[in-house]
Amino acid sequence: MGRDIALSIRRDDAIAKISGEAKYTCDVKFENMLYGKTLRSKIARGKIKSIKYPSLPEGYYIVDKDDVPKPNKLKILKSDMSVFAQDVVNYVGEPIALVVGEDKEIIDNILSKIEVEYENIQPILTLEEGLNTKEPIYGDNNLFADYVVEKGDINEVKNRASYVYEGEYETGYQEQFYLETQGIIADFKDGKITIYGSMQCPYYIKNALLDFFKADSDKIRVVQLTTGGGFGGKEDYPSLIAAQAAAASIKCKRPVKIVYDRDEDIEFTTKRHPSKIKLKSYLDDNFKVIGMEADIILDGGAYASLSEVVLQRAMFAISGVYNIENLYVKGRAVATNKAISGAFRGFGAPQAFFAIEIHMEHIAKKFNLNPLDFKINNLIKRGDKSSTGGTFRDEIKLKEMIKRAEIMSSYNEKKSRFKEERKEGKLKGIGMSLFFHGGGFTGSGERDHIKAKVKLLKKIDETVEILISNVEMGQGAMTTSRKIVAYTLNIPIEKVIFENPDTDRVPDSGPTVASRTTVVVGELLREAAEELKNRWNENETLIVEADYKYPEGYEWDGDKFKGDAYTSYSFGVNVVEVEVDSITYESTIKNVYAVYDIGQAIDERIVKGQIDGGIVQGLGYAGIEVMENKEGRFLQRTSSDYIIPTSKDVPYIYSELLCEPFKYGPYGAKALGELTFVGSPPAYALSVEDALGLEISNIPVRPENILEVLRHGK
Amino acid sequence: MENKIKFILNGEEVEVLCSPVKRLLDVLRDDFNLSGAKEGCGKGECGACSVLIDGKLINSCLYPAQMAEGKEVLTIEGLKKSRIFEILSESFIDAGAVQCGFCTPGMIMASYALLRKNPNPTEEDIREGLSGNLCRCTGYNMIIEAVKMAAKRGEGLW
Ligand code: FES
Ligand code: FES
To answer: Structure pTM?
Structure first.
């Protein structure tokens, strides 16, 4: 293969997807297969007093709590969630039972006849209620996590600060809306459960099921099928569906398939955590931010899921790209009686970066400073300490990147031109955001929990198969992994094989999350390929393995949250330009410019695809993707109400790379997938703010809210 | 109640016995085993189920089978045999327009429907023409690039 790894190659998975031959879960049929549909709670919180099932036609089954082993708890990080509601329900849509059979219409009919009698309990629906409740959903204090991160001495700073600025910021829900809804098939045969389906983390499912069914390791097998997008939404949730489908297959002795309807998926599966963030900054007389207090509250929904780690990432990112030497960060993830908040591209970082970027801009405005100069004056540089006291070890190119973004977007010229045009009634605005993303798991996750292992298998025909548990879900993992191996071995790419993972064949190289597949797993593949190259002639067939090693010189104390929360950081600068309609206050996005430092690009076209896709999801998050909860139900709960961007809502995106390679990433690669999401929400909000000359502190930015602010002041 | 419905599917005359209100999407997927048209929403919002009926782009999830009577239905499996498909698919690959792929067959059908009507579309025409097809992965620009590329490469064929 060619010697410039960045040069794009054809994606091997593309043709089968284009022609419709690729088999997603909905396309796969097994002989004698049955379908399962979920009976869900109709209330937000209560006890189940009784369930009356109708008599079932031959070949139809009910699967519920009585069909699963005790204690009926699924282990994600904590074990607080039942696979089928035990005797309480905690959100509208919580699964109570499955109706299983051959004909979907008959299943629907049975579902409509089931009567559940509840005893209502006052639900917790807001963060305030969740923080002050006497009837906690979770633990004693109703918090899935309650942390503090400290750096320096915030009290000392309070005495010497010349200026203080305080602000409060809010972000809303966001639904992943992967185009392929959740889907799982379970097949129980000869004492062994095999799970097929749409997923990001085959071993998460395997481990969750091993624990749930108390099975031996060889009795559970998980096979990924072509997966139509994940974005975090298929990180933990498929484990729940898999446990339900497996219980059904055990009971019915036939394969059972569960594929969600879109509306079911929108309303009931995991979403991005809404947040409320208070920031209070202390500045010296040169307008250096010398200290900051932060209070971050995330709405975790009804069960713990991944809230604690999402919260950690939000807390560690809260000082943004700024060198703030004294910090006091409080973080809480609150339980509420709503659908579970889980993983979504960025994993807490988008909420934090929205808050800090808006906060910095508002400080500058308050004290009549040029926002960009003010931000640059406070930027981190190599050698500075991160929020957790780790060290930024590599060169930080942010200043150059900002320059580049200014030139690409004619930022300064437009800033002043738009000001003039606004006087003539054209509401144009431009905004810039600066951000980073830490690559891989937070803290020592890679070292202590994941312990990734990869294998390469050299076959008799001189092809090499990659054996890892990371999945292709659209992001290009198949292509980048093959490129790294082919490049290292210096063999044609066609000689390197990547099949969808099957836990009976592949080792646990960890989940497909946290932008870790290229940086962490890719590096292990490079190491394994290096070894295979040296031993190539040793035998006709060979297996080479590589295990994760924590890079030397880094440190992390997970109890105190001290040290290097991440081993590498990727950076970005985004510029968004909008025009706001002066009557409806709808915004049109006119231009987007982006500069990133992702270390070495492994495939430029795949990189561009991640950039465009991430930015557009971020723009949706900040603009049109509205999801509100009233009395426990989402108002936007169907594909007709929950709106995501179409081809008409986004412009061309100008992007460039300006990269600083990372010593421990394959050929210098750093994290990419999530980074591309993080910057566009604040840049969008700032551009609308610029266009309207008012302060925006909440996303999604909605015309109704703008009108409200204009009428009543903020 | 079941009806006998006759139509032309990918150039061949076919007959199916089903409820007249069965969704065409289910007829294609269940009765004919053509799984290229996908269900992304089932409500006419996403275009993943796009097929052409008498040359017009429709969402097969909203289309009752009975209405196909006597009409020509073209799915991705039918288009696949043509030179046009080759041009479209090569352009999609070269432009990086495919990620998870769940929207892709529908996007190809929508692109074909657009180019048949308008062989030299402007960028705006393309954005309009594909606006009924959602994609959550690509942010659309690389798909638009692909359609531009295909328009050029297939000049005279549309
Ligand atoms: S499935 Fe038909 S439009 Fe979405
Ligand atoms: S490629 Fe995934 S939805 Fe379009």
So the answer is: 0.98
The alpha-carbon radius of gyration of chain B (Å, integer) is 15
Here the tokens at position A563 are 């040290």
Whether the Cβ atoms of residue A123 and residue A109 lie closer than 8 Å to each other: no
Which of A392, A672, A670, A675 lies closest to A523, judged by CA? A670
Q: Give the domain extent around A250.
A: 33-121+176-268
Distance between CA A257 and CA A25 in Å, rounded?
A: 9
CB B137 near ligand 2, within 6 Å: yes
Q: How many domains does chain A have?
A: 3
Q: Which helix (H) or strand (E) holds A629?
A: strand A629-630
Q: Which long-range contacts (CB under 8 A, 24 or more apart) does B17-23 make?
A: B18/B65, B19/B65, B20/B64, B20/B65, B20/B66, B21/B64, B21/B65, B21/B66, B22/B64, B22/B65, B23/B60, B23/B61, B23/B62, B23/B63, B23/B64, B23/B65
- Our CA dihedral for A68, A70, A71, A77, rounded to 10 degrees, sits at -60
Element (H, E) at A40: strand A34-40
The sign of the torsion formed by the CA atoms of A363, A367, A372, A374 equals: negative
Give the Cβ contact number of residue A289 at 10 Å: 27
Amino acid at A654: Y
- Alpha carbons within 13 A on the beta-carbon side of A702: 13
CATH, residue A190: 3.30.365.10
Chain A, 597 to 626: residues with Cβ < 8 Å from chain B are 605-606, 608-609, 612-617
Residue A713 pLDDT class (50, 70, 90 cuts): low
- CA–CA distance, A153 with A138 (Å, rounded to integer): 33
Question: Which domains occur in chain B, in start order?
Answer: 3-78 (3.10.20.30), 82-153 (1.10.150.120)
Q: H/E/C letters for each residue in A139-167?
A: CCCCEEEEEEEEECCHHHHHHHCCEEEEE
CA distances from A315 to A295, A629, A672 (A): 9, 25, 20
Q: Between residues 86 and 105 of chain B, which touch chain A (CB distance below 8 Å)?
A: 88-89, 92-94, 96, 98-105
Evaluate if residue A597 carries a pLDDT over 70: yes
Instruction: Please check whether residues A66 and A185 belong to one and the same domain.
Output: yes
Q: Does any CB of chain A come closer than 8 Å to the CB of residue B141?
A: yes
Q: Locate the chain A residue with the closest alpha carbon to B125.
A: A648
Of A547, A577, A597, the one marking the end of a domain is: A547
Residue among B23, B24, B45 whose CB has most ligand 1 atoms within 8 A, to mutate: B45
Is the domain of A408 the same as that of A523? Answer: no
Would the pLDDT of A471 be above 90? yes
The confidence band for A710, taking pLDDT boundaries of 50, 70 and 90, is confident
The confidence score (pLDDT) of residue B102 equals 98
Contact A264, A335 (CB under 8 A): no
Question: Is pLDDT above 60 for A440?
Answer: yes
Q: Are B75 and B57 in contact (CB under 8 A)?
A: no
Phi-psi category of A32—alpha, beta or left, where left has phi over 0 and alpha has psi -120 to 50?
Answer: left
Judge whether residue A263 has pLDDT over 90. yes
- Quick one: A430 and A578 in the same domain? yes
Residues A577, A589: contact at Cβ < 8 Å? yes
Q: What is the pLDDT of residues B11-53, one digit of tens each?
A: 999 999 999 999 999 999 999 999 999 999 999 999 999 999 9
Judge if A438 and A449 occupy the same domain: no
Task: Compute the distance between CA of residue A315 and CA of residue A293 in angstroms, rounded to an integer.
Answer: 11
- List all residues 6 or more positions away from A391 whose beta carbon is below 8 Å from its beta carbon: A383, A384, A385, A564
Please give the Cα distance from B53 to B24 (Å, whole number).
11
A1 has a pLDDT exceeding 70: no
- Does the C-beta of B103 come closer than 6 Å to ligand 2? yes
